[in-house]
Write a structure and sequence with these properties.
The structure is a single chain. By secondary structure, this protein is of the alpha+beta class. The chain has a domain of 142 residues: NADH Oxidase. The chain is built from 7 helices and 4 strands. A 4-stranded antiparallel beta sheet has the order 1-2-4-3. Helix 2 packs antiparallel against helix 5. The protein starts with a helix and ends in a 19-residue tail after the last strand. Bound molecules: flavin mononucleotide. Flavin mononucleotide binds next to strand 3.
């Protein structure tokens, strides 16, 4: 009889302890689910809040910030992990200004109507951003340009996640890939077969533009 009593006590104790472990596990799970969904929302928020920034503060972004942005860039997916990209970082104001002047002169030469757009002496296709990235792709790789697009998008989103402004700037590409820009391109020290794909401006934001409209009819469900 006494033994039965002890067995009953042991049974009750085990059940209570099991239940309390279960409650802890459930609580832990729901905490994790909450954290995961918050994390997911942060990514969505970052994507939805990113805008092309065309006005920057002159203060340079921090080395650690730039490093993180570049690290995120090269962690983009690429076909067969071929990583057919090269990224060059230009932080010298004079170098960016010189390139800007050459790009504008070339645009005006090709399309005289552009003269009006760049009438202001202070005009800059790089918006006076303190950092300019030049992204080049391997022309021998079938997915080279797509892969670089992924790298650039990672860069733009990583920048946004740190409230750093960015803008993909492609209007300079024709000039950069023309013989006129040979000196500039040589200075980038790119491997053979690499051609400039896109440039990206980076810096602290000096504007907060609204989102441009998106056409949701571009998506269709094939049901
Ligand atoms: C490949 C590419 C090239 C671009 N080139 C330029 C450019 O030369 N100058 C510019 O001001 N914006 C440029 N943009 C930025 C687009 O104008 C911008 O992404 C678009 O208007 C949507 O606005 P949002 O980025 O603020 O959402 C470029 C964007 C991409 C993806």
């Amino acid at each position: 009889m006494k033994n039965c009593f002890y067995l009953l006590i042991l049974f009750v104790f085990t059940m209570v302890s099991c239940n309390s472990n279960k409650t802890e596990a459930v609580e832990e799970n729901s905490k994790c689910e909450q954290q995961c969904s918050e994390q997911k929302n942060q990514v969505v928020e970052c994507i939805m809040s990113r805008r092309s920034i065309r006005a920057y503060k002159s203060e340079q972004i921090k080395d650690e910030e730039l490093q993180t942005i570049l690290e995120c860039g090269i962690n983009a997916p690429s076909a067969r992990n071929s990583q057919p990209w090269e990224v060059r970082v230009i932080r010298d104001k004079e170098a960016i200004d010189n390139l800007n002047k050459e790009v504008i002169a070339d645009m005006i030469e090709k399309r005289p109507e552009a003269k009006e757009r760049f009438a202001d002496e202070d005009a800059s296709v790089f918006f006076h951003a303190p950092t300019l990235l030049v992204v080049a792709y391997d022309t021998t790789q079938y997915w080279g340009q797509s892969d670089c697009g992924m790298l650039v998008q990672n860069i733009l989103l990583a920048a946004e996640s740190m409230n750093i402004g960015s803008c993909a700037v492609g209007c300079c590409r024709d000039y950069i890939n023309s013989p006129k820009a040979a000196d500039f391109v040589n200075s980038l020290n790119l491997p053979e077969n690499y051609v400039v794909y896109l440039t990206v401006t980076l810096g602290y934001k000096d504007e907060n533009p609204d989102a441009k409209p998106r056409d949701d009819k571009k998506v269709a469900y094939m049901e």
